[in-house]
Amino acid sequence: NTTNGTTDIYPLASLAWNKGNNNYMTYLTGAIPVGTYSPTSLSSIGIGHGAVDAGGGYTYLNNTTGLEFSSVVGATYNMKNNQTNYKNGIDSHLDWSLSQFLSQNWQVGVAGYVYYQLTPDSGSGDRVGAFKSRVAAVGPQVGYLFKINNKQAYINLRAYKEFWAQNRVDGYATIATISIPLGK
């Protein structure tokens, strides 16, 4: 079965500042459900409901030693999916990483995350009961800084082993991210 369509819109507002080796960030993001979604399909391009996520982050980066520690904590409020009458509970999440720059470009370390649902799922479309889920993960990461048109870009690869799972699938996860600056 093939699905074609659009994705949801994910607006993001953030504010960042620093003082010496200490860097701070706060953010507000969400999901506007305009993407292709089908309640009878195993996978959809859109998530079928709105959501609002807010949180903050901290990074310690010592440019002399190359030591970096980062963490971001947030909470997500999910709206009801009107096609299924199902409402995901409010969840919290913590992402963290500890790494060492080996050179001006290469970084290696360990990263992890914790997802913990604060309130149970609900709604008349809930056919499995009001449960809460959780999962944690940890694993290695490698990052590389490079230039594109004299602007700093970054690529990162992380491999996680998940554990502490309840009412969720656990296993292994691999995440690759790339940050390429656009504009002037």
Q: For the largest sheet, list the strands in their spatial order.
A: 1-2-3-4-5-6-7-8-9
Considering DSSP H and I runs of 4 or more, what fraction of the residues is helical? under 10%
Return the structural class.
Answer: mainly beta
Number of strands: 9
Overall 3D shape: globular
Compute the CA-based radius of gyration.
19 Å
Distance between the termini: 42 Å
Total helices: the number is 0
Strand content bin:
over 45%
Which runs of at least 5 residues are low in confidence (pLDDT < 50)?
Answer: none
Largest sheet, strands/sense/barrel: 9 strands, antiparallel
Helix and strand element order: EEEEEEEEE
Task: Estimate the mean pLDDT confidence.
Answer: 95
Brief characterization of the structure:
By secondary structure, this protein is mainly β. The protein is 0% helix and 56% strand.
Descriptive overview:
The protein is mainly beta. It has no helices and 9 strands. It has strands at residues 12-19, 22-31, 51-61, 67-78, 91-101, 106-117, 134-148, 151-166, 172-179. It has a 9-stranded antiparallel beta sheet with strand order 1-2-3-4-5-6-7-8-9, with no helix packed on it. 11% of the residues are buried.
